[in-house]
Amino acid sequence: MAISRQVATFRLPPLPTIGEIIKLFKLRAEKQLSQNFLLDLRLTDKIVRSAGNLKGAYVCEVGPGPGGITRSILNAGVAELLLVEKDPRFIPGLQMLSDAAPGKVRIVHGDILTYKLGQAFPDHLMKNWEDDPPDIHIIGNLPFSVSTPLIIKWLEKISNRDGPFRYGRTQMSLTFQKEVGERLTASTGTRQRSRLSIMSQYLCTVNKCFTIPGRAFVPKPEVDVTVVHFTPLVQPKIEQPFKLVEKVVRSVFQFRRKYCHQGVRILFPEAERLEKAEKMLMLADVDPTLRPTHLNMFHFKSLCDVYRKMCDEDPHLFLYNYRDELREKRNKKKGNFKRTKDDTLI
Length: 346
Ligand code: SAM
What we know:
The chain is of the alpha/beta class. The chain folds into 2 domains: 2-232, Rossmann fold, CATH 3.40.50.150; 242-333, Helicase, Ruva Protein, domain 3 (Orthogonal Bundle). It is 42% helix and 14% strand. The protein has helices at residues 2-8, 18-24, 41-50, 68-75, 91-100, 144-160, 178-185, 195-201, 242-252, 260-265, 273-284, 297-313, 322-345; strands spanning 37-38, 58-62, 80-85, 105-109, 136-140, 171-177, 204-212, 217-218, 225-232. Helix 6 (144-160) links the parallel strand 5 (136-140) and strand 6 (171-177). The radius of gyration is 24 Å and the shape is elongated. The relative contact order is 0.09.
């Protein structure tokens, strides 16, 4: 009881502002590293509120930089905060925050793309997948060049229930370029519907929380930023291996303005392309003249299930890669051209 009251009332002591920390430690934003800082504590509080109730929670913040969001997380009364920051220039400023919240903050100087979050939290926090999410949250405003590959990587980990999802259905609140946020959350039939929409929504409930105008950041990026919240689903909407779903979805969206049968065809080697694509669409009960953006989750589930059966019948099929075939063809053409040239020379 005493502990929960202590958690509920925790506030950071008076500290230099984020602007002053930036000056104090000479933390000029590196443009090449796409660093844009959030200095407005009302906005950082809003990001943290979008993660839900963090009282007594274990949180990992990715890319804390000068620590604006970090302060809001600490003020939310978390039990523990793990910070993973790649740029060593930010570590002393983060250390100052850590000193202001004794025993709560762990700082890791590392790259979140390689850091192993699967061992980062105490084992007693583990929940069964079917239970409510564990009291573990991932929050971050990362460069867009990192957040998109990272979410794909984490979606695969959700599918395999490893990494940070070893603890159960760990929730995430992450920022994306506004257009990417729209793709992640797009529904069937919209212009933004894309590979990312299917990959994220078959595994998670994905909510677009709010958009922050670029002018709120220092320095101002060219684009606006959207906060997206992910909660892994108890039951994925497609129950096939991640790589298989990824292959089907990527192929279908390869020709996003054409009929979907064009994309389905490239799942098969040239010699059997037409016949097998027709069979797959027929068995999946998908109209070949629907555009990829008009396929709903049930269509994708059906396509993946049928493709899985076809791969089980022909074990070489899954290894077939349209891009490799194209590359080989192109190389052959180049090779032929060279030979003719050499022949002429000889
Ligand atoms: N979160 C801070 C804020 O909102 O003011 C900083 C945002 S800045 C856009 C991105 C931060 O992520 C920088 O501090 C940068 O050094 C860090 N970062 C970039 N790539 C990273 C990676 N792979 N792993 C960990 N941190 C990374």
